[in-house]
Design goal:
Blueprint: H1 12-23, H2 41-63, H3 69-78, E1 80-81, E2 86-87, H4 94-103, H5 120-124, H6 143-153, E3 158-163, H7 169-179, E4 183-192, H8 199-202, H9 205-212, E5 218-221, E6 232-236
Parallel strand pairs: 3-4
Antiparallel strand pairs: 1-2, 4-6, 5-6
Length: 240
């Protein structure tokens, strides 16, 4: 039987909060600037465009410094855009995000995540010069979504595929079956929440990962196998 000390984290959320406090000295991310007051739809759109310009300038200025991975993670956790009622803080233990970034040898790999409609302009502002960000707010299991992704890629292989959607066993299995073939030989497929935990936190992902390990070239990025969730599994795509 495991005995926990008072105050010791026992759930994925508590582990995440504890890890962030330990990494960033317990200082929560500070919201940027004051709230832009709008009195009409036109003014609201204008304020959002100004916010997008500010976000783009901020991201470009930061990336131009060629930051270290730990500084880039700190930037993401500390970023908050009040104008969009959104931030880009990863819902992930910082050390696991850092380990994934160190594993990626892709030049200047970018980040991603789920989003609401209001976040589209914000996320598009993250594109570097010569890059384009395509956003599809669709069901990944829908056959038409798979077709759209194929059309957007136009035959190009994917460097990194990150699967973090429907956490049911059937859902993650279908996402893997639908999109893994899009990854180029030598590219990576990352799967979120491979660490066993409460059903409502991880669903059937750990079961799927356990089976996948038996037939694939895999790596595991996990701080603690007793953390009750999180963790990232990596599959290196073999040549067809």
């Amino acid at each position: 039987m495991t005995h926990l000390s008072p105050g010791e984290p026992t759930t994925p959320t508590e582990y995440l909060e504890e890890a962030i406090r330990a990494r960033w000295d317990g200082k929560p991310p500070q919201p940027a600037g004051g709230v832009l007051l709008v009195v009409a739809r036109v003014l609201r759109r204008l304020s959002e465009n100004v916010a997008v310009f500010d976000a783009r300038s901020s991201v470009r200025a930061f990336t131009a410094q060629r930051p270290r991975i730990e500084d880039a993670v700190g930037y993401a956790y500390g970023s908050q855009r009040r104008e969009f009622k959104a931030g880009i803080q990863p819902s992930q233990i910082p050390s696991e995000i850092e380990a994934l970034l160190r594993r990626l040898i892709l030049p200047e790999g970018e980040f991603g995540g789920g989003y609401t409609r209001k976040r589209r302009k914000l996320y598009r502002a993250f594109a570097r010069r010569g890059q384009r960000i395509e956003l599809l707010r669709r069901d990944s299991h829908d056959l038409e979504t798979v077709r759209l992704v194929h059309r957007l890629l136009a035959g190009r292989g994917v460097d990194l595929l990150f699967i973090d959607g429907d956490h049911t066993y059937e859902g993650v299995s279908q996402d893997y079956a639908s999109y893994a073939s899009l990854v180029r030989a030598g590219g990576l497929i990352a799967i979120h929440d491979i660490v066993p935990g409460n059903q409502e936190d991880v669903g059937g992902v750990p079961r799927f990962w356990k089976e996948l390990k038996q037939t694939s070239d895999t790596e595991e990025i996990v701080r603690d196998w007793n953390q009750g969730g999180f963790g990232i599994g990596l599959v290196t795509r073999s040549a067809p």
